[in-house]
Specification:
Blueprint (H helix, E strand, L loop, with lengths): L12 H4 L5 E7 L14 H13 L4 E5 L12 H17 L4 E4 L3 H10 L3 E4 L9 H8 L2 E5 L17 H18 L7 E4 L8 H9 L1 H5 L6 E2 L5 H6 L13 H14 L3 E4 L2 H16 L2
Parallel strand pairs: 1-2, 1-8, 2-3, 3-4, 4-5, 5-6, 7-8
Helix pairs in contact: 2-3, 3-4, 4-5, 10-11
Length: 287
């Protein structure tokens, strides 16, 4: 069994030659993200954190300027650009592969012009009707996440007949739209959207059903980092474990996702998940 069955095309060499699941480090350039809101709002600190993530074993960093935590309100495009573009420019200039986490096509274009090599769209193209065409023109890798609505409404969209089958089917519709708009199939990555319009048990069912999602024939990204469903499974006397204390659980998910064949895991702390993906690759090779 190959340790790395599916990966997108058009990646920087450092990512294209990996023989294991990639590790994406998260940089939230926001005041209100659920895990680390405000810590990296200053561009200088955000860049320093990105370099630190790389030293700790991340293969790329994902920069977002708009919180997508449950209940979050949208910010203006100008504010989003002000937050993320200086950070992207400086990290890209330092040789760091950068992904832009945005739902806006204009921000995606500006970010790629500033040096980003991947567009990570949590709305899967639903928030901005120009996103697919923009990504097709840019020629970058595009991560399409399963999404049912903005953060302030997504918790009212958690009804599924079978969450694994339903998520795969809805992502299939997104795929069809992206391909029709000209996005090359070799540039598309799918993300089941853990925590987005999902109850805790839905997330576990999706993780256990990753093989079904990968059956669509595209690379898969898993973003479980510090999310609420991990805190709930680690609860003590009904109190969920706080977000900053969920990294070991995140690393466990990284190992399992990598062993299942995921292309990339998205995490807040890189070192443990880097170790996890190395072990998973050896497991898959049988070494």
């Amino acid at each position: 069994m190959s340790p790395y069955p599916l990966r997108p095309n058009r990646l920087p060499e450092s990512l294209a030659t990996l023989d294991r699941c990639a590790v994406m480090g998260v940089i939230n350039v926001t005041p209100d993200s659920f895990s680390d809101g405000g810590m990296w709002l200053d561009p200088v600190r955000a860049v320093e954190h990105g370099l630190s993530l790389m030293r700790d074993g991340a293969d790329l960093v994902d920069i977002g300027g708009e919180s997508t935590r449950p209940g979050a309100q949208r910010i203006s495009a100008d504010e989003e650009a002000r937050r993320v573009l200086p950070v992207i420019r400086d990290l890209a200039a330092a040789g760091v592969p950068v992904s832009i986490d945005t739902m806006r096509s204009d921000i995606a274009r500006a970010a790629v012009e500033a040096g980003a090599v991947i567009v990570n769209d949590v709305s899967g193209g639903l928030a901005d009707p120009q996103m697919y065409q923009t990504v097709a023109q840019l020629g970058t890798v595009y991560i399409a996440m399963h999404w049912r609505g903005y953060s302030d409404e997504m918790e009212s969209h958690t009804d599924y007949d079978d969450v694994v089958i339903d998520v795969a089917a809805e992502l299939g519709v997104r795929l069809e739209s992206a391909l029709k708009a000209g996005v090359e199939p070799g540039r598309i990555v799918l993300d089941p959207g853990l925590g987005f319009a999902k109850k805790a048990h839905h997330n576990w069912e999706l993780l256990r059903g990753l093989d079904h999602l990968m059956g669509l024939g595209y690379p898969v990204l898993v973003g479980a980092a510090r999310k609420r469903f991990l805190g709930q499974v680690l609860a003590v006397e009904g109190e969920p474990r706080p977000a900053p204390e969920r990294d070991h659980a995140t690393d466990a998910v990284s190992a399992l996702a990598a062993a299942a064949g995921a292309w990339c895991v998205r995490v807040h702390a890189a070192r443990g998940s880097r170790d996890a993906t190395e072990v998973a690759a050896a497991w898959r090779r049988g070494e």
